[in-house]
Amino acid sequence: MIYSLYIISKAGGLMYQKDFNEGLAHLTANEYLVFAGTFHGVHAITSKISPVRNSTSSGLEVLEADSFKLYCFQTLTGTKFLIIADPTHPNIDLVLRRTYDVYSDYVMKNPFYTPEMPIRSELFDINIVKLIKQVGG
Amino acid sequence: MIYNLYIFDRHCVCIFYIDWHRHRKSGGIMGSNNAGTTSTTTSMNGQPDGGDSGGSSSSPAHSAAANNHLASHHSTTSQLTSATSMFSDSRLVNIEEEAKLVYGVVRTLRNLVNKLSGNQDGFISYRTSNYKLHYYETQTGLKFVINTDPSTDSLRPVLRQIYTNFFVEYVVKNPLAPVGHPGGEGVNNEYFKAAVDKFVKNLPVFDS
């Protein structure tokens, strides 16, 4: 079961947020923005505090909590895709990459879209919901 | 593979730190850097003082030259004072600074998880491409953090055992240990350190 999807811009702004299933606490719009900003900062720090010397670590990839798991996929351009799902849900990595495909197709290829701005696209919405249904969200 | 263990108290202070497997990977760099640091700091203290007392007219140029000379050789090491400081990959990995960052991350994530799930001790661990951080918090607000390689399973039971079997036995039950462990006092005892070290080294995941 997939609870929600977040897309965070490379500057730490929340570009998109959608809940698919009940199960997590509801936040206010402002709290979602704070969540995105906080996560962005923590993600940067986690790559700096690696205990392994002489190698570069990525930022946080999977966060495990008792009632959910949070997966983060950072693209080469710095945009972060976050999926919060049931701890038992398989293959979230694949879902994240397919979300990125949908984002590329319906957001980045839209000539009227301004980069880094909140995503307001009906086609994107429809296709994301379709994708999440497909993978058993 | 287990890398290190932090214990934080309620007041955001790291009261205990121990690491494993670190010396082997970075031993050469750490040794040479430390030697360089100590030697440059002593020579830097000696030279400008001598120049200032010797002749005031030439001292600015002299000290500037000395500073330039030092800066070109060890531009980054001049501020380091403690023996644990070292540079690798051009970033500071002072243990105290690092502990503060770890505390910040852990506390922020705990609050995020708390907000999303409404559960006080919901945060279990997180993983990046080359390490995994495990977290356990006691009712009294002590935070146990252990870093391992990313493929290790949850070590929360291990952290719990460290708390109940060693921390309670050797620190809490010690009548001479102060309340609240300011500056690691009380935690910094040989029994506790040796017991934790032995326990962790005997874990099956320690070397794998």
TrEMBL record, chain A:
Subunit: Part of the multisubunit transport protein particle (TRAPP) complex.
GO BP annotations, alphabetical order: endoplasmic reticulum to Golgi vesicle-mediated transport
Key words of the record: Endoplasmic reticulum, ER-Golgi transport, Golgi apparatus, Transport
Alphabetical list of Pfam families matching this protein: Sybindin
SMART domains: Sybindin
The keyword Transport appears for this protein: yes
Organism the protein comes from: Gigaspora rosea
Protein name from the UniProt record: Trafficking protein particle complex subunit
Coiled coil: none
Highest taxon in the source lineage: Eukaryota
Record has Repeat as a keyword: no
Cellular compartments annotated: Endoplasmic reticulum; Golgi apparatus, cis-Golgi network; Golgi apparatus
CDD domains listed in its UniProt record: TRAPPC4_synbindin
Family label: Belongs to the TRAPP small subunits family. TRAPPC4 subfamily.
GO CC, alphabetical: endoplasmic reticulum; Golgi apparatus; TRAPP complex
TrEMBL record, chain B:
Record's subcellular location: Endoplasmic reticulum; Golgi apparatus, cis-Golgi network
Endoplasmic reticulum listed as a keyword: yes
Cellular component GO terms held in the UniProt record: endoplasmic reticulum; Golgi apparatus; TRAPP complex
InterPro entries: Longin-like_dom_sf, TRAPPC
Region of interest (Disordered), residue spans: 31-77
Biological-process GO terms, alphabetical: endoplasmic reticulum to Golgi vesicle-mediated transport
Subcellular location, principal: endoplasmic reticulum
Gene3D superfamilies tied to this protein: 3.30.450.70
Keyword Transport included in the entry's annotation: yes
A Pfam family the protein falls into: Sybindin
Low complexity composition bias: residue spans: 31-46, 55-75
SUPFAM superfamilies found in the cross-reference section: SNARE-like
Alphabetical keyword list: Endoplasmic reticulum, ER-Golgi transport, Golgi apparatus, Transport
Complex and partners: Part of the multisubunit transport protein particle (TRAPP) complex.
Similarity field: Belongs to the TRAPP small subunits family. BET5 subfamily.
Name of protein: Trafficking protein particle complex subunit
Top-level taxonomy: Eukaryota, Fungi, Fungi incertae sedis, Mucoromycota, Glomeromycotina
